[in-house]
Amino acid sequence: MHIGLFDSGVGGLTVLREIKKVLPQAQFTYLGDTARLPYGNKAPVTLRQYTTENIQFLDSLNVDVIVIACHSASSVALDLNSSAQGTPIFNVIGPSCVEALNQTHNKRIGILATKATTKSGVYSRYINDLDSKAQVFSQQAPLLVPLVEEDYGDEEVTQIILKSYLTPLLRQDVDTIVLGCTHYPILMHQISQLCGSQVTLIDPARSVAESLAPLMKEPSQEAGEMNIYLTDHAPHFLEHAAQLLNSSRPLLALKPLGPTAK
Amino acid sequence: MHIGLFDSGVGGLTVLREIKKVLPQAQFTYLGDTARLPYGNKAPVTLRQYTTENIQFLDSLNVDVIVIACHSASSVALDLNSSAQGTPIFNVIGPSCVEALNQTHNKRIGILATKATTKSGVYSRYINDLDSKAQVFSQQAPLLVPLVEEDYGDEEVTQIILKSYLTPLLRQDVDTIVLGCTHYPILMHQISQLCGSQVTLIDPARSVAESLAPLMKEPSQEAGEMNIYLTDHAPHFLEHAAQLLNSSRPLLALKPLGPTAK
User: Fold this and answer.
1) Which domain, by its residues, includes A153?
2) Is residue B262 in a domain?
3) How many domains is chain A partitioned into structurally?
4) What is the mean pLDDT of residues A94-113?
5) Partners of residue B43 in chain A, C-beta under 8 Å
6) Which of B72, B119, B158, B232 best tests the A interface by mutation, with the highest count of A CBs <10 A?
7) Can you tell me the distance from the alpha carbon of A32 to that of B67, in angstroms, rounded to the nearest whole number?
């Protein structure tokens, strides 16, 4: 099986990593739209266009499944269940909502997300469509992406900023928090320490990976092959990717597409 | 006189503000390439293409002068002195280098800039072309743009991060620091407090404004008119703009161009 994923930058690699754990024999193609990153502060109409273009590109490679490995892009494309070629499309929002409802006891769910995702109100709508009694509390966390990208996870400032984002959610007595951006699971340990063991953290990457598992019918002949396409030259992407995917061998083919790539 | 400026977001408005002080009767057109912001972490080849497209757009409006109101874009376009139509092009790097050399006593100059600008080495080259004895010390400050955009200027974390960026420069005994990104002058007060009065801070917006002054031949009939074009819908841009330009009247026409605007 050939799985195509896209995100604006490295964040979506956390989704790839989790899918690879569940489907180690799948072939992967990852598109990083680095020329237009980040997606988290772009307008819905713009994100919708970028998403459509990225899906068309993955479609052109004849992948078997497309995963929108970005919450901001997922939030404007929940209605896209299949591509123009009929390829099934998965997003990172639906499966994490189902998982949050499975985990919560008091039906009070917190969402930590980018501005774009928070403003879309997509998590509240999706969760309340599944369970109208659940209460959803959303918190914008716009500085977490730059802090992760600058490798500031263990710095004091990240602790201070995380605390300011998490306190309003914890005051609402949530027992489950969805890490609603692909970058956030990189701060899982720090968030977990601030929230304590009574709060369950949902990593949407793991949720979408589990929802893909039933699709795997037979091992691919090209098991484990991985291709990465980028829309901008990003010299540190490969390094980040190898680190995130915990890969010691050079299994990545870097193919800059140029900023006008469709 | 009709002055066209561009930047990826609101940052370049600090340049517009300074030029407006020097040339209050000029007409202004500002292009914010919000669909592809930020520029500070994009590759040179990509930035060069965005810059060329933005210049073409301003050329199509028949402006009299084009100002690249962004350091990252300026750093890849120092050779562009005029557009295809022959319109003179100014950048924010040249004038600030001249000003830094005018101000320094010990010829030790610090540059605070984005990754793209720092990596380009453009400040060192430009300053050393003017004075081979000057020593230039560069410091990347990648978190300042998101902190400014999130209005975190007065927060403790900004203080901590600023200190970590400025300390290496101060250790080099610089007596002049160029604020090499249009967002940074918004933190002028905080930076000044950390550096002390013995360090002169150079705001490139002011330097480029002063270099434009001699161009003003006659007052424009449409004095003070201002148009803003954006490549993405950015609901808070107008608010930011009014605040930055200290304008109490609605003098801005917001015209989203869509993400594929050329």
Assistant:
1) 94-204
2) no
3) 2
4) 97
5) 232-235
6) B232
7) 31
Q: Would you call A92 helix, strand, or coil by DSSP? A: coil
Q: Are residues A130 and A162 in the same domain?
A: yes
The pLDDT confidence band at residue B262, using thresholds 50, 70 and 90, is: very low
Same domain for A215 and A192, yes or no, is: no
Residue type, B223: A
Task: Evaluate whether residue A262 is within a structural domain.
Answer: no
How many Å apart are CA A192 and CA A200, to the nearest integer?
A: 8
Peptide bond into A38 cis (omega under 30): yes
Identify from B10, B37, B42 which residue to disrupt to test chain A contact, counting A C-beta atoms within 10 A and taking the largest count.
Answer: B42
Q: Tell me the average pLDDT across B111-130.
A: 93
Q: Is the ipTM of this complex over 0.90?
A: no
Residues in chain B within 8 Å Cβ distance of A46 = 35, 232-233, 258-259
CATH code of the domain containing A215? 3.40.50.1860
- Residue A7 phi/psi, 5-degree rounding, is -155, 175
Q: How far is CA B237 from CA A18, A243, B40, B44, B253, in A?
A: 37, 37, 19, 26, 11
* Contact: B45, A160; criterion CB under 8 Å: no
Nearest CA in chain A to B144: A146
Give the pLDDT of residue B200. 98
| Co-location of B58 and B105 in the same domain | no
pLDDT tens profile A237-256: 777 777 777 765 444 545 55
Give residue ranges of A with CB < 8 Å to any B CB: 34-37, 41-43, 45-46, 49-50, 142-143, 146-147, 149-150, 152, 156-157, 160-161, 232-235, 258-260
Shared domain for B50 and B114, answered yes or no, is no
Task: Answer whether B161 sits within 8 Å of A157, measured CB to CB.
Answer: yes
Please check whether residues A116 and A16 belong to one and the same domain: no
Burial of B235 (0-12, 13-18, 19+ CB in 10 A): exposed
Residue B261 domain flag:
no
Please indicate whether residue B70 is annotated as part of the active site. Answer: yes
| CA-based nearest residue in chain A for residue B48 | A259
> What is the band of A262 on the pLDDT scale with cuts at 50, 70, 90?
very low
